[in-house]
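Re: the pair you flagged

First of the two:
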Amino acid sequence: MDPPENPSDAELLRGIAEGGELACRLFYRRWSPRLSRFLLHATDCRESADDLLQETFLRVLRAAPRFEPRGSAAAWVYRIAANLAYSHWRQQRRGAWLQPLEYDGLEVPAPAANPEQDRLRRTWMREAQQAVERLSENHRLVFLLKIDLTLTYEEIGEVLGCPTGTAKSRFHHAVRKLRAVLHHWEDADLGDVIRPVANPGRDAHGM
């Protein structure tokens, strides 16, 4: 059975579970860019990210019949990808999982008309990335899922297998650490650069 027009993720997963080829193609087209970005951030290796992306979709295909529509489809998919990325990290025995990120929450906008302001922006971006890299793995991952992927605390808890309150406390701990490290930038004229702040985002409506 073909999925309806503009299907939800849950409807696509139901179509995949029923063996629908169109649902598989639509799901891959929708999720490939965001999962690819997530896995590249997690591994810092394009080849590894591509391999994990294919494995993620294979597991989605196999597990789709077991998906519970009452749960969050996004959290379910990201949990599969996150588990694979974590397993990859453990196998590699690397000292740090997530690498410096250029996610939306710390994105440098177009070059400023003022060269000095542009220099300040880029310096701030570099220091902010380094600060994120120095966070512990747990806090770094929660920060990524919240800021880069805009998941709610409940969804992050589902992805990481921890209580919603734990996800929330880890995120706020990460924000406090970043603000402490970057406090000397508080009065700098950075234009439209978005500093890391504890913005409730979708949680303002979802919790």
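Second of the two:
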Amino acid sequence: MKIDRIERGAVHQTISHVNLHYRSQEDGPIAARLLELLGLTRSQEMDLPTGGTFYRFTVHSNDVNRADGIIYLSPLPSATAALFEAIGDKLRIGAPDEHPAVAVYRAAQATDPEFNFHVGFLVDSLDAIEERLAELQRLERTDPAFGGRLKILVNRALPGDPVIDARLDASPLYAGVDRYTYGRNGVQAFVETDIIVDGPLAEGLVIELDYVFPGHAAHILSVSEITR
């Protein structure tokens, strides 16, 4: 019997995991605490024979064993650290004759936190984002473990919806902000930190929290617009 075609049902696909690293063993517990402050649930912690700790986090606080929505956190592998060090030496990072591309890259990153690789989480409560960012701002001011290691930047929704505009005008986080999202009916909050390392210079990672106002088919995560 010849089979010309096999009928297949729809396949459901999600993001299973993202793997992140911290640079030093001392940064492990601080990095883990940061991810919890950003709303993730720690579900595993394991000491590694090579030093440092392996962590598993999930976005599913009510179902921690789910096989998707996972963030793994572990020490930066030594081979990767050696590569980053070689890149830094070659570019003369921090030296008077630092390669000019480094300053250009850093300026672009400072202007737009979405410029490079970053990790975003959708949060279903704007109040929760405001509370989490307020706590991070407090820790950056008062806790030596976080002092000087967190940079926070936010984008508010494009103006035009009176209900959304009023809510953001009253927000402790978004009131007075004149940076706007690449889209409508949602907001973004970015936390840039060197506690977790990434990027071509291994200088840090940007973690993004998003909120979409309900009742809008077109929003920041469905339709992008050039707004700046």
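The chain has five helices and eight strands.

-B.
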